[in-house]
Amino acid sequence: MKKYLLAGLLVWLPLALTIWVVTSALGVLDGIFGWFLTATQAVLPAAATEPLETLRRIPGLGLVVTVVALLVTGVFATNIVGQWWLRQGARLLNRIPIVKSIYSSIKQVSDTLFSSSGNAFREAVLVQYPREGAWTIAFVTGKPGGEAAQHLPGDYLSVYVPTTPNPTSGFFLMVPRRDVIELEMSVDEALKYVISMGVVAPPVAAAPAVAAAGAARN
Q1: How confident is the prediction for the chain on average, in pLDDT?
Q2: Which residue from 111, 120, 126, 110 is spatially nearest to 194, judged by alpha carbons?
Q3: Of 18, 56, 115, 158, which is most buried by a Cβ count within 10 Å?
Q4: What is the distance between the alpha carbons of residues 34 and 201, in angstroms, rounded to a whole number?
Q5: What residues make up the domain containing 172?
Q6: Is residue 105 one of the residues assigned to a domain?
């Protein structure tokens, strides 16, 4: 009985968790879309709000609207006119006392993470943490800068050490490059390894000599 229960659990648990994550994401997007409809209803006449109530009851519409909005924004942001308006908006936000600190920090981080020319989160490495002799997976985010770099002689790397099973929280470390072991695994494979708490290990790439010998035997 125990064997069959565990076998059934292994079949349904990944499927149930996948459905839960997808439905939760759709629920968040539908909630944001519902908030937008509520704000729109507050400024429109009562007679014009009935069609909006119909839109509110369509499941998944928030996802469609979000994707379309991102595409339209991307097209707008990649032409000269759109870039000029975005610069004006950023300049306005940077003049508001509290908002400018939050906006500028988030924008710098997002520009660094999602830039196609940046190196942040492009490489997985091994570092010793939280003590010497204990190793964990980290992601290279760049090199130390500013005043911190002036107090660190030699070649240092900035790395992010994610927690498990939730990699969205973690620790920021500045470590000597000589103490870092570069990994051949991709960032996706490293994240899967961290989230699974080491249970799902990525495949090891065969060494060139071993691979050549295997090909010769075949």
Answers
A1: 81
A2: 126
A3: 158
A4: 41
A5: 124-195
A6: no
The order of strands in the sheet holding 181-182 is 170-176, 156-162, 135-142, 124-128, 181-182
pTM of the model: 0.58
- Helix (H/G/I), strand (E/B), else coil: 125: strand
* Residue 137 within any structural domain of the chain: yes
Q: Could you say which DSSP state residue 152 is in? A: -
C-alpha distances (whole Å) from 139 to each of 4, 181, 185 are 40, 11, 11
Residue-wise pLDDT for 83-97, tens only, equals 888 888 888 888 888
Q: Give the span between the Cα atoms of 59 and 128, in whole angstroms.
A: 47
Contact yes or no for 190/137 (Cβ under 8 A)? yes
As for how many domains the chain has, the answer is: 2
Tokens of 167: 């990699």
Backbone angles phi, psi at 123, to 5 degrees: -145, 135
Strand partners, 14: none
Distances (CA, A) of 117 to 155, 160, 187: 22, 19, 16
